[in-house]
């Protein structure tokens, strides 16, 4: 504890780091404040609980926006259009030669891709905005809450404000990335998820107290299990398979000496796809909810059976989709052929393996083998909320035991801590994650 307090003091001593942290916290506070502002024409006193946004794609959006989605806030769409645009640009980069060329153009290419992503964000908002306005009753907004009705005036004003809110959230995220600490978009998502944590825990705590004896022991047991799940998530996010790489000897031009060979490694992550398989799977699991509204009894029964996110059928199919999408997303985002070519151009090679095609095949084989346990681990974490829900844990609190929310929080926290740690080590202070070998300055 003493070392932790000293580390906080060290962080405060570094002026640049202190200013970045203050700026980051300030922007996140602005985002949370804006998320509380409802659209004009909505009576906030009549808003009901969003019972239809507990699971599926709507649940993800509501969690990412910190409940703003179900409160009809001007930040209801939040950074989701930007995330969608980023995913589309990333996937199109595999097939569109122009985007592939931008990847090779360095900083100028990245700036052009950023501009494309921004414009695509606005286009996606033009699609998601009207869909949200037309289906506000499905996310817990009753008819009595519409003080202006559903006329054209409300539609136009709401659409303009939703677009403005999404663009503003995108701007905040980019400013945090440029001027603050951590990835701005990810931090905005994380702060939205954390905003729902106190209420969910207090509801669970109150529920257990009202249940009778042994409530405190049950709460303590739940917290212990939750902590263990967090540790497992940390392992999933940070685990890598190191592939040894040897660099050949090379002569220095204009010098007599020869630079000796060096040994390095390629870190292949156990879960290279991150949370994307869960997001893709959740998007497909939104289909059963649509089937449940069918007039055909057979189709309706299938939709109901696979539409319950805490049901057995839903979670079996959900886990299988996550495993499939883990392989799919890893295959399209980890270019083993390009890695092999880069190694060959840099006079690097894997010991015992020929450079070029053989190296690419080996990397692809290793990646396929480690993706299997990683995808199973990810699937188990994704369905864990349903498992703990069978032991009497409330749904809102159970959602923090796994799935997209927990993995995002863990990943963003680790990334932010690593950036802070880098600042501390550069200034010869002990880092947050491990002790520095440098000497502490006074």
Kindly describe this structure.
With 442 residues, the protein is mostly helical. It has 2 domains: 15-195, Orthogonal Bundle (Preprotein translocase SecY subunit), CATH 1.10.3370; 198-442, Preprotein translocase SecY subunit (Orthogonal Bundle), CATH 1.10.3370.10. The protein contains 18 helices and 5 strands. The protein has a 3-stranded antiparallel sheet with strand order 4-1-5. The chain has a two-stranded antiparallel ribbon with strand order 2-3. Helix 10 packs across helix 18 (403-426).
Quick summary:
This protein has 442 residues and is mainly alpha-helical.
What's the SSE blueprint?
Elements: H1 2-13, H2 15-35, H3 56-64, H4 80-95, H5 97-103, H6 107-134, H7 152-179, H8 184-195, H9 197-211, H10 215-238, E1 240-247, E2 250-251, E3 258-259, E4 262-269, H11 276-284, H12 287-291, H13 297-307, H14 312-333, H15 336-345, E5 348-349, H16 357-389, H17 395-398, H18 403-426
């Amino acid at each position: 504890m003493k070392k932790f307090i000293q580390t906080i003091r060290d962080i405060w001593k570094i002026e640049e780091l202190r200013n970045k942290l203050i700026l980051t916290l300030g922007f996140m506070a602005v985002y949370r404040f804006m998320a509380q502002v409802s659209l004009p024409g909505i009576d906030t006193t009549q808003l009901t609980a969003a019972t239809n946004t507990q699971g599926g794609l709507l649940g993800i959006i509501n969690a990412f926006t910190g409940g703003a989605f179900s409160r009809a806030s001007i930040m209801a769409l939040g950074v989701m259009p930007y995330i969608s645009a980023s995913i589309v640009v990333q996937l199109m980069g595999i097939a569109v030669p122009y985007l592939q060329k931008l990847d090779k153009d360095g900083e100028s290419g990245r700036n052009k891709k950023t501009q494309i992503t921004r414009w695509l964000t606005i286009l996606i908002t033009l699609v998601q905005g009207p869909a949200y306005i037309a289906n506000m009753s499905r996310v817990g907004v009753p008819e009595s809450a519409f003080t202006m009705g559903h006329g054209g005036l409300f539609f136009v004003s709401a659409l303009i404000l939703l677009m403005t809110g999404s663009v503003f959230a995108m701007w905040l995220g980019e400013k945090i990335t440029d001027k603050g600490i951590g990835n701005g978009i990810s931090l905005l998502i994380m702060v939205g998820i954390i905003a729902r944590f106190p209420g969910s825990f207090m509801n669970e705590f109150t529920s257990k107290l009202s249940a009778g004896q042994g409530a405190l022991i049950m709460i303590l047991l739940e917290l212990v299990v939750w902590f263990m799940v967090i540790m497992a998530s940390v392992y999933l996010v940070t685990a890598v398979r190191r592939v040894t790489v040897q660099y050949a000897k090379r002569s220095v031009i204009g010098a007599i000496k020869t630079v000796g060979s060096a040994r390095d490694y390629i870190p292949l992550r156990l879960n290279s796809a991150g949370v994307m398989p869960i997001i893709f799977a959740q998007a497909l699991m939104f289909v059963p909810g649509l089937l449940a509204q069918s007039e055909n009894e057979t189709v309706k029964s299938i939709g109901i059976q696979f539409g319950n996110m805490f049901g057995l059928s839903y979670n079996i199919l959900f886990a299988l989709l996550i495993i499939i999408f883990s392989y799919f997303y890893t295959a399209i985002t980890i270019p083993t052929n390009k890695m092999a070519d880069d190694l060959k151009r840099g006079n690097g090679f894997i010991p015992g393996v020929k450079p070029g095609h053989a190296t690419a095949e080996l990397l692809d084989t290793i990646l396929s083998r480690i993706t299997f346990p990683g995808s199973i681990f990810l699937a188990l974490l994704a369905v864990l909320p349903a498992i703990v829900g069978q032991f009497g844990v409330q749904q809102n609190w159970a959602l923090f035991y796994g799935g997209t929310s927990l993995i995002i929080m863990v990943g963003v926290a680790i990334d932010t801590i690593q950036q802070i740690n880098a600042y501390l080590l550069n200034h010869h202070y002990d880092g947050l994650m491990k002790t520095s070998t440098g000497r502490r300055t006074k």
